[in-house]
Amino acid sequence: MGLSVTTQNAIIKKADVDRYQLVLFNRTGSVLVMRSSDDNGYSLPIMGVPRFTRLAEELTTLLRSRWSVETVLLFAGVSTDSQKEHLYAVLEVQDGKCPAMKSAAWLSVQQALQFLGETQGALILKSAYGKAARRQSGSTVGPFSKLGWLQDLHDWASHVINPLGMKLKHFQQLNGSETFSLIRFETTKQPVWFKAVGKPNVHEYVIAQALAQLLPRYVPNVLAAKPEWHAWLMSNAEGVTLWEAQSSTTCQTAAKTLADLQFESLGMTNVLLDANCRDLRAPALLEQVDPFFDTVAKLMRQQTKIPPPILTCHELADLRATLKDALHCLVATQIPDSLGHSDFNPANIIVGPEGCVFLDWAEAHVGHPFLTFEYLIAHLHKSDPTRPKFENEMRSTYREPWACATSPEQVDEAFACSPLVAVFAYAVTSNLWRDPVGVKIPGVAGHFRSLTRRMKQEADSIRLRRVSWLN
Length: 471
Hints:
The chain has 3 domains: about 5-145, Nucleoside Triphosphate Pyrophosphohydrolase; about 150-235, Phosphorylase Kinase, domain 1, CATH 3.30.200.20; about 240-470, Aminoglycoside 3'-phosphotransferase, Chain: A, domain 2 (Alpha-Beta Complex). The chain is about 45% helix and about 20% strand. The chain has helices at about 5-15, 55-65, 110-115, 120-130, 150-160, 205-215, 250-265, 270-275, 280-300, 315-330, 370-385, 390-405, 410-430, 445-470, and strands at about 15-25, 30-35, 40-45, 45-50, 70-80, 85-95, 105-110, 170-175, 180-185, 190-195, 220-225, 230-235, 240, 280, 340, 350, 355-360, 365.
């Protein structure tokens, strides 16, 4: 759900805010909303949005609160002049008629351009109109930048759900861009969700279809797919997220359901890989250890500030060797590879009356099952850095079925090695570390250095455990 105005204002005061010039078209693009001023002039409306939030959800919620209009974000961008960059967002107002708005008016595109004159706002409007109304020749923009696409979606979704005895009602756009969309539709029965993906997550479209067929108990039910949009319509997962209902019982339920899912996925390795799941099995990870650490060694030499500490060549060599040993140890546990989720966080876990449903499988992989469990524990660490609540109970619940499949000693060894391997697998999942240009992007080099320091902490923990076992 969207934030209340009070909460929104409180966040804006505390967080960095990006200011967007808004181009608000009606459904046909014949008119747009312009902000009126005291001197009888007009300009594009401007709204502040807290940084690092979902732009579509924030803007549509603010516009609903301020002007009582339902809108959908088409696209956003940056327009640059000689002095600075100007953020803008283009939206479509869904009301059939153009509603009256306080301190604003509906003007034609030509009227608006006359008021804007030679300003950057005029350039933004011309570009936005060309893209949204498909007036640009040779345009290769995504399907959700086009005016009227939501009506096409409404017609398609109605065709899918009407035979099920449901009719569409309200909608809420939670995320969106030219090629990506996430919308929740209320219906006369239970809600349904529309999701579409673009680059770099097009693979999620295939994964979602495959998992709905292979492991339907654990993922939302896919009602229909729209291949030309890389989109699908799915049932609502009944329940609340693990963030919202974090307790000993719900955390143990999540751990048990994860183990059940992974056991059920054993033997599906080839099918899952064919469905575009990433290969994070030990042999694939071992191939990446040496090139990754060669890159990190260069990045460490580029670090100019201390702290954080710069890992020496000797420390990196020790870490490299410990990581390889940990990967070999995971293989030796004879715990088979299974379906995994590299973004397995409490927001992607819906706890319901009959167990859990897992969402957002763009980061699906095939690998050692314990990696996914460690990602969940790592996310819970963020809310309690000293020790996640209920970690002992979760580990006990998760280990039980695996201890029945192999020896308790092998499970202990897997628990000891998997945190280190999980951090490494997370680091190499993106190929950005291989890109000489990519690692020069501000913050990227620091990100990989930070992950490597985290690996060293996990490697030191493995050594300490083994020393304690010997004593």
